[in-house]
From TrEMBL:
It comes from Puniceibacterium antarcticum. Gene3D superfamilies: 1.20.272.10, P-loop containing nucleotide triphosphate hydrolases. One of its GO terms (molecular function) is DNA-directed DNA polymerase activity. InterPro entries: DNA_pol3_clamp-load_cplx_C, DNA_polIII_delta, P-loop_NTPase. SUPFAM superfamilies: P-loop containing nucleoside triphosphate hydrolases, post-AAA+ oligomerization domain-like. Its EC number is 2.7.7.7. Belongs to the DNA polymerase HolA subunit family. It is an enzyme of class 2 (transferase). Keywords: DNA replication, DNA-directed DNA polymerase, Nucleotidyltransferase, Transferase. PANTHER family: DNA POLYMERASE III SUBUNIT DELTA (PTHR34388). It catalyses: DNA(n) + a 2'-deoxyribonucleoside 5'-triphosphate = DNA(n+1) + diphosphate. GO terms for cellular component: DNA polymerase III complex. GO terms for biological process: DNA-templated DNA replication. This is DNA-directed DNA polymerase.
Length: 342
């Protein structure tokens, strides 16, 4: 049976204890692993592994001994309760022993959980589970978690009171971070709010969010937008030492100034523009960008975007021989000087 993306989250949270097995496949190994952990924990409980009710079988080991999977399904634990046989890193080359194990499965045997990488629609392993009457297959794609999934993670961590702006901030983080980092962030937020019954705020989310690898680049963009030209040279030297490309700097600066222009030119005013921004701007960063947009105004921001576009074209020109980072530094200083004239 094939699980749809709509039904999969519910199944991961409350898997069928009487099912023969489940195949979870996907390109992102971390996303697959998180869903596998959730399913196994729901089936055997938090003490299942300690009570030896979980058997792990690497795909490489099953290739050497095809019978070990069926043995794991039939083996009994010293402790009562449901059991799971977990086959990891499977591929189509293991279809035959997996098929044999599914055929010999009987009620009371361990449930079979299989994880694999990306599988095409023609995959023999995928077809085996999709065509089985009491086993399921589900693909995990690189989509950010839905609002419902985020709320479920928060509730599981003990957080039930969440400000609407804080939920928007978490949704934005979910789109930026990989699943493992986002899960750790939710756990960090839950620890931060331990014993605090007040609703979670976007400022608290920002405090708990991991520092971006581009944090210094973000600060550089703020320095330029705030007209602090004296700080640009030293920061450019640090970014150059980190291997930052000139084109990347221009692209990120253009994105920042477009966001400011969108805020400044909103018919309802900059505050309403900041609230409508996509992706959402939250926490202290929102206040800072709002001040920048108000200080620049839409007219001067149009001029700034023109300077950035000209520099971008110059960097990409076939006849360009000047040092690329020097051109970007000159562009940033021009922008900072333009800001300080406001």
């Amino acid at each position: 049976m094939k699980l749809s993306p709509r039904d999969a989250p519910g199944y991961f949270a409350r898997p069928d204890a009487n099912s023969t097995g489940l195949l979870i496949y996907g390109e992102d190994a971390m996303r697959v692993a998180l869903k596998r952990q959730q399913v196994i924990a729901a089936l055997i409980g938090p003490e299942g592994e300690a009570e030896m009710r979980l058997t792990r079988i690497p795909g490489s080991e099953l290739r050497k001994d095809p019978a070990m999977l069926l043995d794991a399904l039939k083996a009994q634990s010293f402790f009562p309760g449901p059991r799971v046989a977990f086959l990891e890193e499977a591929s189509d080359t293991l279809t035959k022993p997996v098929s044999a194990a599914l055929q010999d499965w009987r009620p009371g045997d361990a449930q079979l959980i299989v994880t694999a990488g990306a599988l095409k629609a023609t995959s023999a392993l995928r077809k085996l589970f999709e065509g089985h009457k009491s086993a399921c297959a589900v693909g995990i794609y690189n989509d950010p978690p839905s609002r419902e999934e985020i709320e479920a993670d928060l509730a599981k961590s003990g957080l039930k009171e969440v400000d609407r702006s804080a939920m928007e901030a978490l949704s934005a983080l979910a789109r930026e971070l990989d699943p493992g980092d986002f899960r750790q962030t939710v756990e960090k937020v839950a620890l931060y709010k331990l014993g605090d019954s007040s609703p979670l705020s976007p400022q608290e989310v920002a405090l708990c969010a991991p520092l971006s690898s581009e944090a210094e680049l973000d600060e550089m963009l703020h320095v330029v937008a705030e007209g602090r030209s004296a700080e640009i040279g030293p920061m450019m030297s640090r970014l150059e030492g980190q291997g930052m490309a000139a084109v990347t700097l221009i692209i990120m600066a253009t994105r920042h100034f477009r966001a400011l222009y969108s805020v400044a030119s909103d018919p309802g005013g900059p505050a309403q523009g900041a609230a409508r921004a996509r992706p959402p701007i939250f926490g202290p960063r929102r206040d800072r960008m709002l001040r920048q947009a108000q200080g620049w105004g839409a007219f001067r921001l149009e001029s700034a975007l023109g300077i950035l576009t000209d520099t971008d074209l110059q960097l990409r020109s076939a006849g360009q021989h000047a040092p690329a980072l020097a051109l970007v530094e000159r562009c940033f200083i021009r922008l900072a000087m333009l800001s300080s004239r406001g």
